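Re: Re: ligand-bound prediction request (bumping)

Still looking for help on this. To restate: I need the protein modeled with 2'-O-acetyl adenosine-5-diphosphoribose bound, output as structure tokens. Inputs repeated here so nobody has to scroll up.
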Amino acid sequence: MPVAIADALQLTIDEGGRVCVLTGAGISAESGIPTFRGTHDSLWSRFDPMRLATAEAWREDPALVWGWYRWRMQLVRDAQPNAGHRALADLAERIPLSLVTQNVDDLHERAGSVVDAHVHGSLFALRCFACGCAHEGVLDDYVDGARRVEPMRCVSCGDRIRPGVVWFGEALPDDAWDAATDAATHCTLMLVVGTSGLVYPAAGLPAVARRQGAIVIEINPEPTALSADADHVWRATAAVALPLLAR
Ligand code: OAD
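Reply:
Sorry for the wait, this slipped through. Here it is.
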């Protein structure tokens, strides 16, 4: 583990500081969940977001969109949290830590973390497309490999149930965004783990932390749009680096 990073974390602990962790798809990669960018099999290399991740796409072909999200939900249900997720849960038991994620999976929670903000929503927070009512019932069955699945219906108004994620062109949920900016504003050290830093406003959170005087550390095997502005970078995967950091 780079000495400068160990020292920065130790200083934060000694001074009673607060850590904010911002995670992206990379932290779930070692659990087998594909990232959005970066490899030939990442989601946006294989699928067109405009046909699958917008309100217009939903209106056009809800069964195609729901089928794609049901496939992603199934991937997450079949996956397990990895050592990176578990290390963050462990760290939060010992130091003041806020966790902000762009991920729509529930692997942080299943590793034992409390997530302060899912800034891009949650796959499993289902709600009605028309009236916004939360869907409390069980998830419909998914036949492995099904491309098109007719969405479930809202018990209040009869419209279709959509996934609880933020689609392109939609605003972030206010409560999650407020919690995320609060965490970034009040931390003394920010760990940026497994994000390409290309999607705003979430990608602006490290700059918010830095403006308030926080040290920013990036953990990512590859350089990103955020690397140049980080105080320290650690070129390692989340499941390798975070357990070392927690230890
Ligand atoms: P990306 O897919 O854009 O970036 C994934 C990052 O994870 C890359 O920088 C990889 O180098 C890194 N990475 C890959 N494997 C890793 C590992 N084992 N450990 C650590 N890092 C690893 O994912 P995000 O930055 O999360 O938005 O994407 C941001 C947003 O773009 C997503 O939330 C999604 C997408 O469009 C919405 O759906 C609204």
